[in-house]
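User: Predict the structure for this protein chain, please.
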Amino acid sequence: MSTPAHETTADQTASGAAERTDAQTFYEAVGGEATFRRLIDEFYAGVAGDPLLRPLYPGADLGPAAERLRMFLEQYWGGPGTYSQLRGHPRLRMRHAPFRIGPAERDAWLRNMRRAMDSLGLDPAHDARLWEYFERAALFMVNTFDEPPAASGSAPSG
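Assistant: Here is the predicted structure, written as structure tokens:
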């Protein structure tokens, strides 16, 4: 049995993301798919040129990563459940565990996301709610506080 559009599931309620106000989810209130597409397109435009973040994304094409993030965020904020239909449970920490994510990577991710959010022109209440989520999520992804290995400018000897 599917959940009626005016109700939320236990998982959605636990996250707080899919709460409805005035019969709208956050996803709907900020403009739905078009808004999340703009957000993610702008974010990945920044990632493409970021010397700290770009190496974390395997392959030349950032498109698949962008699509996954967009679907995840749409689902989280009360939009279509496509992410879970295609990929199962998000398991964000597990999916990011192979990558070194320290405070510098977190800060670079947040800088790019802040720039992307600023391009949307959301109203202050929606902007604050979305930014609070991104700050928490970025902190949650940190998996090391060790300094990154120093890049050597010379060839190995021997």
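DSSP finds eight helices and no strands in the chain.
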